[in-house]
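Supplementary Methods, section 5.1.

A reviewer requested that the exact input to the structure prediction be made available. We therefore reproduce it here, unchanged from the version used in the analyses.
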Amino acid sequence: MKNRIFKYYGNRFFSCITAAVLLCSAVQLGIFAQDETRDIIEFYVSPDGSDSGKGTAEDPFETIAAARDAVRAAKEGFSGDITVYLREGRYYQESALEFTAEDSGSDDCTVTYKSYEGETAIIDGAVALDVSKFTKPADDDAVAARIKDATAKENVLVYDLSGLNINYDEQSAVYYDGNRALEARYPNDGYVLGFAECDSSAKTFYDVSNVVGTWTEPIGVKVIGMFEIDWSSSEGTISSYDPATNRVGLSTKSLVKSNGRYYYSGVIEELDAVGEYYIDAATEKLYFYAPADYMDIGIGISSCKEAVVKADVNNYTFDGIIIEGGCDDNIRITGNDNCIKNSKIRCCGDTNVYINGFRNTLYNNEISHSGGSGINLYGGDSRLLIPSNSVIDNNKIHDFGDIYRVYNGAVYAEGIGFRISNNEMYDAPHTAFTNVACEMLFENNYIHDVCYEAGDAGAIYEGGWTSNGNIFRNNLLKDIVNKSSEYYTPMGYYVDNSGGGKTFVSNVLINIDGDAILCSGRDLKLTDNIMVNTRGFYFDQRGYYPGAGVLSGWGYTTYFPSGLWLNMIPFESGSVRVEQTPAYATESWAMHYPWTMLMKTTNVVDLNDNYVSQAFGGAVIRNNVVCNISGGYNISDNPERLINIRDNVSGILTADIFADYENGDYTVKEDSKIYKLIPGFRAFDFSENGVQ
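The structure derived from this sequence is encoded token-by-token as follows.
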């Protein structure tokens, strides 16, 4: 490997002054060639450095922003790789660390920010607390005196937050040792099931738990849950309390129904479990039931709004970094050819990673404790049918939907042409994957222990026609069960609203409270799947021709026009004509989706000449295996009449299918009875599943 100084000249014109400055910087940095054709520039950042330094290993910058500005200058006219090494330590962001288009790399000049080898850099949007300043509450501390639990009262610590950059609002949260602390609540886990003696119009209910009357100041206490229906979040505050009748009044925009569920939050009296906290804004004090090792861990309060890192760039890589502590999102990247790898993105108020563009990659990260989704993935051009080719691969994504507990999964995808592969998604109250993207490959993913507070939901959820052309293969869905039987029964793979045009092949679904697969649309290919200990397979006819009796569809008007069809045809919005994707029967759509040309010649309902699919087209249910099942197939009359259903078997024991079912080895045995009963069966490949 040869060291050489890069010469800042070539096809571009530089002034003498600019060229001299850049050449001087190159000499100071000791730029060296990685090989005979590729050059490298290196900068260094350390919490012990100085922004007036040179940015070298011996004289590093103190802030990442200083390194960013140095990169901005150095990359002009440079062809090669620029790497910024972040030394061990914490880099606090009071406001977002922003990278703009002028910081962007290119195919000729890539930019990488990474932790130095063997060290860990933390980009933190939370105010770090000095653990030595935690104290026992004073004897006359009236707030601490309200704690009801005697053990907690002895162990809760107090911290004076005055003078720190903290906004005392609902977006502030306490994090400790990479975990989210819980605002003191009742009950500690789960919900109160049902608003007792509910008056929906007055929005009052009877406090069946008999706890509100034990609080000194109940007015303003937060009430959070699902007040109307299990797939819609609700929130409000206590507006009144009558101790004589034990009735609670709610201030909320939601309906309040007797079958709703809820919990109380932000109640100092209920601070009774390790990891719970309460912030008294009036006195600017934090009350925290800290773990025993609190002196040895990091504790912080989120303060950075919007996002900790905002990057509108191309050809950027973030490698081996911890990004945490955002009030909202942790990192937002818009652009092309960007990568986040080998990193931990954790502890934020909303989405951990937002990424939008072409050819972006998330690889080998741990993404956890997001208030909303783990990852929001966008990209491609759905109108022109240009794929994003972005990839989410080999990540562990867990504890998502911490705050917004409905339809916030490990991944939300919108756009066209993604690959989502070899990820593990787990530990969340609702769905793991919510999708409206099309032409996507979802394979070798392991999803488990999700939907534990859900009913009308699925571990994988797709609604409508926008998500057509997707392939799901070789995925393992396991333990999709409720914590309480009263939360109802979640599904495994759930295709809602008559959505069609999807392939679900060679997947294994184990221990699912509801249906392993629930769907209702046309052109679905559901083959070679193994279902164990689940309610089985359900195919409804909601989108079929309306009418009466067993052959009538139901709910079809709700979904008309929807999904793919809404995207294919222009529509009126008030007095404005909205042009969507190229209209039905255009050449590009005819070539990409040839089956759309057949719609009017199949048995469809033609309402106002909007060609909505009301038949089941080329749907196939074939070569599927069910065992230890509690329901089998439940297929409505029209699908049963029109769909290709054949070669499905049941009654096989798990011992005749898997190598070692009891110990979690779901390799399909070479001598399995499946191959005799279904020649040509395409087996699930357990060795390729999950994080590799």
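Helices lie at 16-29, 64-74, 150-155, 563-568, 587-592, 637-642, 673-677. These observations are discussed further in the main text.
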